[in-house]
Amino acid sequence: MPNPLAPPACTCALMRRVTRAVTRDYEAVLKMSGITAGQFTLLSVLAGSEGLPVAELAKRLDLDRTTLSRNLAPLQRDKLVAEEAIKDNRVRKIVITQKGHQVQAEAEEGWRTAQSRYVDGLGVDKWSQLTRLLEDAREIAG
């Protein structure tokens, strides 16, 4: 077992390597839908709601508002999401459009292919353990 406090065992470096590899895998199956893995996640969160204020959407995705705005721009341009004003035009809510629902549903088929590869490859117990460990690591990071 490597020394956990030595640089070769760096949690950040390992997480970044894993994240890049897994993202490439998911993006390969999402490519035919025309959206990225990050866009799929964003559309999926919105598909399960009746729209969310920008601040709440940023919180759910663990993104700062500036990064969220950059991620929303191509989805707005492609008319997959829209912005609606609520609370006397002082708060903006992001909603998924009908076109966005269609793209998300088409992309979900590819997503299921990739997701199944990890669940099947690890087995349900290890996959569940991995998701819990990743959530624990996110909470430690703050």
Percent range of helical residues = 55-70%
Morphology:
globular
What is the structural class?
mainly alpha
Which strand order spans the largest sheet, edge to edge or round the barrel? 1-3-2
Number of helices: 6
Please compute the radius of gyration using only Cα atoms: 17 Å
SSE run: HHEHHEEHH
Largest sheet properties:
3 strands, antiparallel
Which stretches of 5+ consecutive residues score pLDDT under 50?
none
Give the strand content.
Answer: 5-15%
The mean pLDDT is: 93
Distance between the termini: 27 Å
Write the layout of secondary structure elements.
Blueprint: H1 11-30, H2 37-47, E1 52-53, H3 54-61, H4 65-77, E2 81-86, E3 91-96, H5 98-122, H6 124-141
Antiparallel strand pairs: 1-3, 2-3
Helix pairs in contact: 1-5, 2-5, 5-6
What does this structure look like?
This protein is mainly alpha-helical. A hairpin with a 4-residue loop joins strand 2 (81-86) and strand 3. It has helices at residues 11-30, 37-47, 54-61, 65-77, 98-122, 124-141; strands at 52-53, 81-86, 91-96. Helix 2 crosses helix 5 (98-122) and helix 5 (98-122) crosses helix 6 (124-141). It is globular and about 60 Å long. The protein has a three-stranded antiparallel sheet with strand order 1-3-2. The two termini are 27 Å apart. It contains six helices and three strands, in the order H-H-E-H-H-E-E-H-H. Helices cover 67% and strands 10% of the residues.
